[in-house]
Amino acid sequence: MSDTIPRPLPSASVASREKVISIDNLTKAFGSVRALDNVTFDVFAGEFVAIMGPSGSGKTTLLNILSLLDVPTGGSYRLDGIETARLAEAEQVVIRREKIGLVFQQFHLIPYLTAVENIMLAQYYHSMADRGEALEALDRIGLADRADHLPSQLSGGEQQRVCIARALINDPALILADEPTGNLDEGNEERVMGLFKALQASGRTIVLVTHNPDLGARTDYVIRLQHGRRIA
What we know:
Layout: H1 12-15, E1 19-30, E2 33-44, E3 48-52, H2 59-66, E4 74-79, E5 82-83, H3 89-99, E6 100-104, H4 115-126, H5 131-140, H6 156-168, E7 174-178, H7 186-201, E8 205-209, H8 213-216, E9 221-226, E10 229-230
Parallel strand pairs: 3-8, 3-9, 6-7, 7-8
Antiparallel strand pairs: 1-2, 1-4, 4-5, 9-10
Helix pairs in contact: 4-5, 4-6, 5-6, 6-7
């Protein structure tokens, strides 16, 4: 049973921090099919956590709920101590915009906007666009010289790094990433993981969905799903 699986004790440095995510008996049903079945776990501030499992195990469904893009049909999801089921849709939008950075396997860059403009668009929906700040974000990921390139002029690895810069531009404390290296070669996979580790070192909390055991081994803690249930 998912709720009987003991969570390894966090290190002293983690245990002293607050829970960013607290999931208790979370369920998501689509008709008679349970995509998630009584899943329970916590994520502490500053942790790097991987969610792993085969296709159809519920990984992406879980991430959609964590990112407030979907709602559970049962159980509890608390984000920074707030019960998300009690939030109105407008409140969820504000939290997603201000507290959560999303990185996807598919880059979802606007094809007719340059790299810097894609980042500025995320700023616009948060507060106001600032080209200087967007350029600084690109510089931090090593792409300052590609600022005025369209997505079609960037490699897959460069596009994913732009996506990470876009996710970070509004300074979210929580990063949720869905197979962010799935379309990348080994060299770019290493660059992206290096960026995530640097983000963790700066104090951010990261939840990574991945099928790659090598990536999972580089995180602090792995949550394994199978047929919608937590198995480890």
